[in-house]
Specification:
- The structure is a single chain.
- The chain has 19 helices and 14 strands.
- By secondary structure, it is of the alpha/beta class.
- The chain folds into four domains: 130 residues, Response regulator (Rossmann fold, 3-Layer(aba) Sandwich); 170 residues, 3-Layer(aba) Sandwich (Rossmann fold), CATH 3.40.50.300; 70 residues, Orthogonal Bundle (Helicase, Ruva Protein, domain 3), CATH 1.10.8; 61 residues, Orthogonal Bundle (Arc Repressor Mutant, subunit A), CATH 1.10.10.
- The chain is elongated, with a radius of gyration of 31 Å.
């Protein structure tokens, strides 16, 4: 049921409409002229308004404009006589939702009201969606004013502003940097500032997809292409349409798939598994890695031609320890987010907490900072977050730079190269207080490779 405002100067029609709508269960407020209708909305917010296009004191189009200018967004249905349909068209141009032609039939009136209420529901959902998009946009914004991050953002914005070429293509971008520096946030920023910001943003973690399924996930497959392919499916590249495909941890992509990705990037076409038809790649590709691709190439684990193709436009994100006082700005932003989720006032950082955060090296970068802040806000029982709430261990947090304490078992019992790798892996993790990501950086390998060596040791 709806709250309905009727503005109509014909007393008989006003009474008839009001009676019929009340019988249908609606709440009705009746106004016999424009001034009375405008006054009514000061205390009554209708779900829908029925407005006569011709009133004795104020034109119906002007009433619509006044409603809209004062922030009222309820649906408005104008009622018009046969000879004034042109006025109804003008009213809809000014903000009316629909119109009815007099004499107004009750059945037609109910249909128009139901249609207008559905329009209102869609409008309300759209407003919620816009608020959510703004909130998520704020949550994934990159906070900071240091020279290091300012230069990075300026370069990313220039890349985002590059127009599509004559074939509608956008250049590939490679994002590099340590784990937790915000490469996914920067990829979103490039997408959001680009010419296809309203199109999909599809994120793919190359290390999380099973090797036997990653090709089908990326490029799709036809029905019957392989066992279990019971239906035709689009791949993620195709689903991105003309938006953005973000290939996170590109350094972990299997070698056999790297050749196919290179062809896709060079030819801008792709083929579903089991299909003979080439399809155009319309999406921009942004890749990211926290490993040294040149080292991967030297180790025979990454194609040099693909690396050169990706490095055409490259951006390196600075680690948090090189961003001066950005750590405080980001921490306060994260505190506000966490406090909002908990429906409480954001606690300030004490002077001691700020000093500790400035001295700490943040080996896990912003991801580590986020985890520290979440814990501090949840567990802090004071009016502010102090140094103890941060629970940052290990002196100034500077990661080790050498594995000087490793002792290889030369001259002892027989050993293999794998034994030495496993020993180095275990002692690196111990030197980094159990931080696998930090140990992997110390050894110059990926987290997955380090975990593989640790798992083999336990077998």
């Amino acid at each position: 049921m709806a709250d309905i405002l009727i503005i109509e100067d014909e007393e008989t029609l006003l009474a008839t409409l009001g009676l019929e709508l009340q019988r249908a269960g609606h709440t009705v407020v009746a106004a016999h002229d424009g001034a009375t209708g405008l006054k009514a909305v000061e205390t009554f917010e209708p779900s829908i308004a029925l407005v006569d296009i011709k009133l004795p004191d104020i034109d119906g189009v002007e009433i619509i404009e006044r409603f809209r200018k004062t922030g009222h967004d309820f649906p408005i249905v104008v009622m018009t006589a046969y000879g004034t349909v042109g006025g109804a068209v003008e009213a809809m141009r000014r903000g009316a939702t629909d119109y009815l032609q007099k004499p107004v039939g009750i059945d037609e009136l109910e249909i128009v009201i139901e249609r207008a209420l559905k329009h209102r529901q869609l409008f309300d959902r759209l407003k919620v969606f816009e608020r959510e998009r703004e909130r998520h946009g704020a949550e994934r914004s990159i906070i900071g004013s240091s020279s290091a991050i300012t230069r990075t953002l300026a370069l990313a914005d220039r890349m985002a502003a590059v127009p599509v070429d004559e074939r509608g293509r956008l250049p590939t971008v490679l994002l590099t940097g340590e784990t937790g520096t915000g490469k996914d946030l920067l990829a979103h920023r490039i997408h959001d500032l680009g010419p296809h910001r309203e199109s999909p943003f599809v994120q793919i973690n190359c290390s999380a997809l099973p090797g036997q399924l990653i090709e089908a996930e990326l490029f799709g497959h036809e029905r019957g292409a392989f066992t279990g392919a019971d239906e035709t499916r689009k791949g993620l590249f195709e689903a991105a349409d003309d938006g953005t495909v973000f290939l996170d941890e590109i350094g972990e992509m299997p070698m056999e798939l790297q050749a196919k990705l290179l062809l896709v990037l060079e030819n801008r076409t792709m083929r579903r598994i089991g299909d003979t038809r080439e399809r155009s790649l319309r999406a921009r590709v942004i890749a990211a890695t926290n490993v040294n691709l040149q080292q991967r190439v030297d180790d025979g684990r990454f194609r040099s031609d693909l690396m050169f193709r990706l490095q055409t436009l490259a951006i390196e994100l600075p680690p948090l320890r090189e961003r001066d006082d950005d750590v405080i700005l980001i921490a306060e932003h994260l505190i506000a987010q966490q406090a909002r989720r908990l429906h409480r006032e954001p606690p300030p950082l004490s002077a001691g907490a700020k000093d500790r955060m400035r001295r700490y090296a943040w080996p896990g970068n912003i991801r580590e900072l986020d985890n520290v802040i979440q814990r501090a806000v949840l567990l802090s029982d004071g009016d502010e977050i102090d140094e103890a709430d941060l629970n940052l261990s290990g002196g100034n947090g500077t990661p080790p730079t050498a594995l000087s304490d490793i002792r290889f078992p030369f001259g002892a019992q027989p050993f293999t190269l794998m034994d030495i790798e496993q020993l180095a892996a275990r002692q690196a993790v111990e030197a980094c207080d159990g931080n696998v990501s930090q140990a992997a950086r110390l050894l110059g390998i990926s987290r997955g490779a380090l975990r593989h060596r640790l798992e083999n040791e336990s077998k």
